[in-house]
Specification:
The protein is an alpha+beta fold. It contains two helices and eleven strands, in the order αββββββββββαβ. It has one domain (2-157). The chain has helices spanning 2-24, 140-144, and strands at 26-33, 39-44, 50-56, 63-71, 74-82, 98-101, 107-115, 119-122, 129-133, 136-139, 149-157. A seven-stranded antiparallel beta sheet has the order 6-7-5-4-3-9-10. The chain has a four-stranded antiparallel beta sheet with strand order 2-1-11-8, with helices on one face.
Length: 161
């Protein structure tokens, strides 16, 4: 009987700990070094919020912005914004996608709605990669240096302001 009570007490404590963790933690975008696994930065982000990464395309030398949205605890690519065609840039619209033109001459392809199980960028050696999140911008080169693989994932963290 004593073992049964001890086992039940352990289960209750684990369940309470998990409950408390989810009550005090927040969903976050977590950036890690893709080679070492070291956490580089953590940003609070809520369901349905967007973030983007902008970089200069290495072939056509024009800006590209990939826009992502958080859905069901996963990162989804929702649209890409670019300014010229070239190798490595989408040239055909697939089923379910749309192409719009921005006032600045940009081409906006949307309708991807695709989960990104493994989202990584290699920070540019010639030009930077800029993360836009929660109304702010982060230069990934300043965060982690050139030629670093940055892995993006969603998790939960306790954040104290």
């Amino acid at each position: 009987m004593k073992r049964l009570l001890t086992g039940a007490a352990i289960v209750v404590m684990i369940a309470a700990s998990v409950f408390i963790y989810f009550m005090v933690s927040s969903p976050c975008l977590i950036l890690k070094n893709g080679d070492t696994g070291k956490t580089l930065a953590v940003y609070r982000i809520e369901e349905e919020n967007e973030f983007s990464v902008t970089f200069v395309h290495s072939v056509n030398k024009s800006p590209v912005t990939d826009v992502y949205k958080i859905r069901n605890g996963e990162i989804y690519v929702v649209r890409t914004i670019y300014y010229s065609f070239g190798a490595g840039v989408q040239t055909e619209i697939e089923e379910g996608q749309t192409l719009e033109y921005g006032e600045d001459g940009s081409m906006i392809v949307s309708g991807f709605n695709r989960p990104m199980g493994n989202l990584s960028y290699i920070v540019g050696t010639v030009s930077d990669h800029i993360l836009e999140i929660n109304g702010g911008t982060v230069a990934l080169r300043e965060l982690c240096g050139r030629n670093t693989t940055v892995h993006f994932s969603i998790g939960r963290r306790i954040i104290i302001n």
